[in-house]
Amino acid sequence: MSKPQTLFDKIWQSHIVISEKDAPSVLYIDLQLVHEVTSPQAFSGLRQRGLKVRRPDRTFATMDHSLPTELVSKSSGIIAIKDQIAAKQLDQLAANCSDFGISLYGLDNPYRGIVHVIGPELGLTQPGMTIVCGDSHTSTHGAFGALAFGIGTSEVEHVLATQSLLQYRPKTYKVNFEGDLPARVTAKDMILALIAKIGVGGGTGHVFEFMGTAVSQLSMEARMTLCNMSIEGGARAGLVAPDETTFEYLKGRKFASQGDAWDEAVAYWRTLPSDEGAVYDKEISIAVNEMEPMITYGTHPGMGMGISQNIPAPADESDINERASLQKALDYMELEGGRPLIGQKVDVVFLGSCTNSRLSDLRQAASFIDGHTVAADTRMMVVPGSEDVRRQAEAEGLDKIFTAAGAEWRTAGCSMCIAMNGDQLQPGQYAVSTSNRNFEGRQGAGGRTFLASPLTAVATAVNGVVTDPRTMSNE
Amino acid sequence: MNPFTTLTSTFMPLPHRDVDTDQIIPAVYLKVIDKDGLVDGLFSRWRYLPDGSPDPDFVINKPEYQSAEILLAGDNFGCGSSREHAPWALTGWGIRAIVSTSFADIFRNNALKNGLLPIVVDEETQQQLFSIADEETDAELRIDLEAQQLILPDGRSVHFPIDPFSKQCMLDGYDQLGYLLNQGEAIAAYEAQTGK
Fold it and tell me: Which residues of A fall within a CB distance of 8 Å from B20?
């Protein structure tokens, strides 16, 4: 009998072009997603060497990071780009896609959106694939049982030119979430809890495989939230084994196969889950039955806690480096250790990003905010992950619920998650954000971010202070 | 990519752990379509005072480190985003090697493709170097990549790991794309065999 294999092993093995001793493997890449920020220098490299894109049919581009999300004309969703440098970068992507024969979901395309939202939405992301993008949140696509990871621009060029990458085999890390999630606790809380436990470097060199009853019960979109933040735990990729939930999500999508080809694909996908007895390099088990909504208090995603807890006090930290790191973070955040975060004044609530901007996130948030109003001194922005999400949300009337509550309804993009597009915090402001990074200044120079779920974001927006969503009435 | 063989230089201490790529270069600097001009963004959130003038207390603004080519960093350097602008900004400023106990995966990969050598040492060595930096700013480190040795100011020599392939690429200044392009036949055979 052959050795039991993990899901990761199976995908890795089936994509090895060349495996040599003392050299990295040549790994075939099934799909490359491209956006405006990390690709221009890669295309310049191709031009300098006189190279073509090897497989334009396996390459798809969109615009998401640097464009504004202000809704100018509701009918068209057309965006006014005032930032000339950003406009030039967007034009460059359009020119590159045109010159090299790559499909572009550009400004006027009705399916444009955040790269990690539209890949799954279009059915480009499929189980068993290798997927890369010049973006660390490519780990999102692992929710389908695809090996998906972020790469730098040099590697973007490598894949454009050869459809392959030089890679050393990463190690595997089994993350078992057991139990049933309590009410108002979400996939976002699960991943924040994991990162709080293992730290931002805990998964370095590894690929997570998320499993357990709590994971199999998650919807596809919630699994994307979970895998999205794998990189915040140091792991370049996170995986969830494909199952009926996966197949049901994919069926009928634009790039999903049909008829016999679909049946064949599903039959193959069913062989992918890890074999009984497969061995992982590392394992952790987390019980979710008692899990609280999570929130971060510091300046990296590992500085998180259950929302009812007190912020850790540096004085209680025995490790001198940890203490210094915590003190530096709390100084930046202007917060005091040993105190609760609940009740902390919040200026901006951001609902969006490749972590939490899909239709299910917006539905959940809308039903939670319905009948409430955003606090007078708080700004709430709702930024759908794609134009398709925006259209569907509007068809369901979600936009009306948000605007009636006093929130802003915007067009698709990375928006305030990356703050390079005009959507940003002012120095000193506090935000509760459904995005993935609370690094110093990530959402605008001097801005301070608390990462949390869409439900915590809504509860906070309504009260104007950090609020436990379990305490909010929802008639 | 310029070859990297040996390097002797002073080293600049940045003791914070988990320095993320948003600190190395904030996203607002990523709107460029080339690799120029990124140096101004290097550590810009820490480097400049609110009025835009250089913060004299921040390490890269100190006159004694202006010619330092080695950065001594805290644990898990380069976590966060995949932006290769981070190594571009560091090398643009003049950094050619970074010494730490650990590096984030994507940053490490990106650094190696730009002639920027990540050197992993144990915590004791790292802490010893931070202590030296506290006392003397002109202490030098010597790096011998071929021998994989980091020679400390006291003459002690520490072995550091690097995979043989990356090492050879660094020593020769060899671009990894050249290697991949030479595998064209194998890639075509894989595509034919798998129907891709």
Answer: 300, 437, 439
